[in-house]
Amino acid sequence: MKLKQFVVALLAGWFVLAFASCSGGNQNSGKAEATVKETVEHNEEAIEKKTEEVKDKVEESDKRTGQKMKKLEEHFALIDTNADGKLSKEEFNKHSEEEYAKKDRNGDGKITADECKKFDDFNTDGNDFLSKEEFMKGHEKMFDRMDADGNGEVSKEEFLGFFKEKAGKAMKGKCGAGKCGEGKCGGGK
Ligand SMILES: [Ca+2]
Ligand SMILES: [Ca+2]
Ligand SMILES: [Ca+2]
User: Does residue 180 sit in helix, strand or coil?
Assistant: First the structure.
């Protein structure tokens, strides 16, 4: 779709150019015609080249998105321990607990800012580490946000939708105020 729009825009640009060249009087119409022909050929080449470039870029980005979605789906399957295609709060909490244990490498019950991108959001008491309670509460809030229809379970669609929306927001550069990197603490990594 984007590719098509791009090509259309390029073609529109070419018509404007061609028209401008043609409307320069007819004294040198032969010469002008040759110039237009040259311009056309040149532009066709340029369009072809650009089209290929854009196509490559779109393919690359599709591939990246595909990989990301695949990772998210794998992550969902990992949390969905009874494999019923839905995440219960129990499943999600259990996963959060495991994530906490993983992140707290030296096992002192503290997670520091560099170990968790959601640190500021989760660190409700404002000290310099996340307690397990803070980590769990933060993830519970995240669960509620993911559960878009509020039925107490997170479906795969809700899960993927949550991270898709987040990715969209990040792409638009609206990720201020500590909203970036959401889910990096275990929700969607
Ligand atoms: Ca489940
Ligand atoms: Ca804390
Ligand atoms: Ca739900």
Answer: coil
